[in-house]
Specification:
The protein is of the alpha/beta class. It folds into 2 domains: 230 residues, Mur-like, catalytic domain (UDP-N-acetylmuramoyl-L-alanine:D-glutamate ligase, 3-Layer(aba) Sandwich), CATH 3.40.1190.10; 154 residues, Mur ligase, C-terminal domain (Protein-Tyrosine Phosphatase, Chain A, Alpha-Beta Complex), CATH 3.90.190.20. It has 14 helices and 16 strands. Strand 2 and strand 3 form a beta hairpin.
């Protein structure tokens, strides 16, 4: 009952916000991007393609927003903005003369009507894997929420390699234009159908192919698309190499079992030596994913260091117990609750040619302990510790 009341409240707020700002999205070409992983990179790549094509465009992601020509960092624990901010941003973009808007859409944003009243010209679905079951309760409900975006779109760009999700989505797409992309199954947009050089990391290949599919559907010149993809510098906190010598240190936002597996498997391609993985899991969030995260870490990393990650008011040892429950008794795992101390230990442990990968925080600029947000940035911490420990001269 309480959830139904909250849902009605969000819907009423959405209607009010649309009316107040005059339904600005109706005069914009909106591209919506959803999925468990890859949303931010795909959204940004689409934006870069449009910008390279001299299209007036704005975007909102969980890392970075560009509205009416002004850039904003969104470094705290944010997803899709609330409906009043979404409508405000759309109105600012329209008043600025923008014609297109690329919007990262989370399952929470869809369920809480934050993008209600926004006609979507093209919807992109990157993938759907295990996440947010604390909110959605079951995987099926999570999938249904993600599919809300597909239902309201005229055209859908979908990952063909995600076979189960693709087959589930098919009945919804019969009356829509569907554009498939992928690496392995037959799809419209694949590595051998494009002329640009794709990123080397597999999951970034998927993100690039999704963005290329959107660019093609919007009629953008192939050379413009290729230039945007090849010149893309990457995103802060997404497989970001912070240090490359004497060992490599990577900061990544991965906080789901699938994302951790992909990030660590990518790290394996970067070294023939050891991978040291530092991570934790957010408090009062999906408990069921924690053992799967632990299993993924053990599978790909040589050594795992479990630590804090926004534990909020949940007991950090309980969180890490749940993560470790997915690991074998022989797993090489250490527990250091303080994140700075955990990163310090990883840096001290690393030798020439190793990879230290720190996941879970990525671009975020704070660390939640109890009910307080403390300033924190993984990249800044690594750079400071490397200097303090004089490890940049380590042979």
């Amino acid at each position: 009952m309480l959830r139904a009341i909250k849902s009605l409240y969000h819907l009423l707020m959405a209607i009010a916000a649309n009316v107040y700002y005059g339904f600005p999205a109706r005069k914009l070409t909106v591209i919506g991007v959803t999925g468990t992983d890859g949303k931010t990179t795909t959204t940004t790549l689409i934006y870069e393609i449009l910008k390279k094509a001299k299209v007036n465009v704005s975007m909102v992601t969980s890392v970075h927003a560009v509205i009416a020509g002004k850039s904003y960092d969104t470094g705290f624990h944010v997803t899709t903005p609330d409906v009043w901010h979404v409508q405000k941003y759309l109105k600012e973009a329209l008043d600025h003369g923008d014609t297109h808007f690329v919007l990262e859409m989370t399952s929470h944003g869809l369920a809480q009507y934050r993008v209600f009243g926004v006609p979507v010209a093209i919807a992109v679905l990157t993938n759907i894997t295990h996440e947010h079951l604390d909110w959605h309760k079951t995987f099926d409900e999570y999938v249904k929420t993600k599919f809300m975006l597909l239902k309201q779109a005229k055209k859908v760009v979908i990952n063909r390699d995600e076979d189960d999700i693709y087959n589930r989505a098919l009945p919804l797409l019969l009356d829509k234009t569907m554009i498939t992309y992928g690496l392995y199954r037959s799809a419209k947009v694949m590595p051998d159908t494009v002329t640009c050089t794709l990123p080397t990391i597999e999951f970034n290949k998927y993100n690039a192919l999704a963005a290329i599919a959107v660019g093609q559907e919007l009629g953008i010149d192939e050379k413009v698309i290729n230039d945007a993809i090849e010149q893309f510098p990457g995103i802060k906190g997404r497989m970001e190499v912070v240090i490359d010598s004497p060992f490599t240190v990577i900061v990544d936002f991965a906080h789901t079992p699938n994302a951790i597996a992909k990030a660590l498997s990518a790290a394996q391609l970067m070294t023939k030596k050891h991978i040291i993985h530092v991570f934790g899991s957010a408090g009062h969030r999906d408990h069921s994913k924690r053992p799967l995260m632990g299993a993924a870490s053990e599978k790909y990393a040589t050594q795992t260091i479990l630590t804090e990650e926004d534990y909020r008011t949940e007991n950090i040892d309980h969180i890490n117990n749940e993560i470790q429950s997915g690991m074998s008794d022989t797993a090489n795992v250490t527990r250091i609750n303080d994140r700075k101390e955990a990163i310090t230990a990883a840096l001290k442990e690393a030798n020439k040619g190793d990879v230290v990968i720190i996941t879970g925080k990525g671009h975020e600029q704070s660390l939640c302990r109890g009910t307080t947000e403390y300033p924190w940035d993984d990249k800044t911490a690594v750079l400071s510790l490397m200097k303090e420990l004089k490890l940049n001269k380590k042979k």
